[in-house]
Amino acid sequence: MSEPSAGRDQVFAAPMDAIGGFVFDESVASVFEDMIRRSVPGYGMTLSLIPLIARRYGQPDSRVYDLGCSLGAGLLAVAPALPASCELVGIDNAAPMLTRCRSNLNSASLAQSWSLANADVADSPIENASVVLLNFTLQFVPVDSRLDLLTRIADGLRPGGVLLLSEKVRFSDANAQRDLFELHHAFKKANGYSDLEVSQKRAALEDVLIPETIGEHKSRLTEAGFDHCEVWLQCFNFASLIAVKGEREPAE
To answer: 139 CB contacts (<8 Å, ≥6 apart)?
Structure first.
């Protein structure tokens, strides 16, 4: 699975007199595929492996949500691994992203029915779900709203349902934080970003993207009602966690 080709990310390539907060506007949406692949270590591997998890946990006649669906890469990745009776639901508050997401899903001729909503994931209902994707989205939700969102996800999952949470993370140990921060910087430079681009994007994301430690994520997932959770993939300062709610009910 791959997203349709898009432009090369040069959003922060020119010097800026004033740098505002990062927003998912048209300029970002038009290059988002390139941006995320060149900025997030392990992103491609995450997309290649989540279908294995979806195949294990996806249940017939259930909903599969992608919260913060952006261009639809998560839904496109998991759809072939799911029963045709599943309903795919993508939610994003950025209209330019949803426009491209709708086009991508239309082009894919998916076996499942699907719908998209231009809404805030922090207060969107989650119902009859067996799989929920939250890929690099929670980090943009205000910290004091994160527990409520995860609790609603847990409440909306069927027994045996799963949440896949991918996030940029920070580290309590100062040495680990410094080393992995610098490795992430090196990753972006190896992918063609200049020091200016890295610096200006970091300034735009400050106070917009708020990372937490893996321990903080695990503690919150437990408090939200998940029965067990663990890291299933980590690349530098980006990690993906799997959180399971209860045991799947036996088929009648």
So the answer is: 167, 168, 209, 210, 211, 212
Superfamily for the 26-172+205-245 domain: Vaccinia Virus protein VP39 (3.40.50.150)
**Distances in whole angstroms, Cα of residue 187 to Cα of each of 118, 172, 175, 191:** 33, 22, 18, 6
Among 78, 77, 73, which Cα is nearest to 129's? Answer: 78
Q: Which residues pair with 88 in a beta bridge?
A: 64, 114
pLDDT at residue 130 above 80? yes
| Residue at 1: amino acid letter | M
| Structure tokens that stand for 179 in this block | 């080393």
Inter-residue contact 98 to 92 (CB < 8 Å): yes
Which residue type is seen at 210?
I
Question: pLDDT, tens digit, for every residue of 199-214?
Answer: 999 999 998 999 999 9
As a three-state string, the secondary structure of 162-185 is: EEEEEEEECCCCHHHHHHHHHHHH
Residue range 156-180, pLDDT digits in tens = 999 999 999 999 999 999 999 999 9
- Output b/e per residue, 120-131; b: 16+ Cβ within 10 A: ebbebebeebbb
pTM of the full predicted structure? 0.93
Find where tokens 């490795």 sit.
Answer: 183
The three-class DSSP label of residue 100 is: helix
3-state secondary structure of 7: coil
